[in-house]
Amino acid sequence: MPFDATKPSSNSAEIAVIDKMLELLATPDKWMQGALEHRGSYCLVGALWEAETTGLLKHHILRRMSCIANQWGYSTVPAFNDSMWRTHTDIIEFLHAVRESY
User: Which of 11, 35, 36, 69 is 20 to 30 Å from the Cα of 79, by its Cα?
Assistant: First the structure.
């Protein structure tokens, strides 16, 4: 069966959640460390919880994020997010890496 570019990929729901996370964390003032959410700013896990409201994909996406964090030398997503050397640019690059892994 030939590839049909009009059909969504089997991972389109996951990619849509990652895209929503990228929107939520689009500017440095929307990203935070040390808490899930505060006044409209989010850490990586908080952004996932906000972006994926059905609850169906949260744990699947969090596992994927954990795998990428591990490849980048961190044992957990919060450890990656909350590293004292972390920058907003790192967070955006991380989410693009997660998105590309689908």
Answer: 11
- pTM comes to 0.89
Please report how many Cα atoms fall inside a 13 Å half-sphere around the Cα of residue 84, on the Cβ side: 0
Domain boundaries, the chain: 12-100
Say what angle helices 58-71 and 44-51 make with each other, to 10 degrees: 150
**CA distances for 28 relative to 11, 41, 102, angstroms:** 28, 9, 25
Q: First and final CA of the chain: distance in angstroms?
A: 21
CA 60, 51, 67, 6 torsion: positive or negative?
positive
- Phi, psi (5° rounding) for residue 38? -155, 115
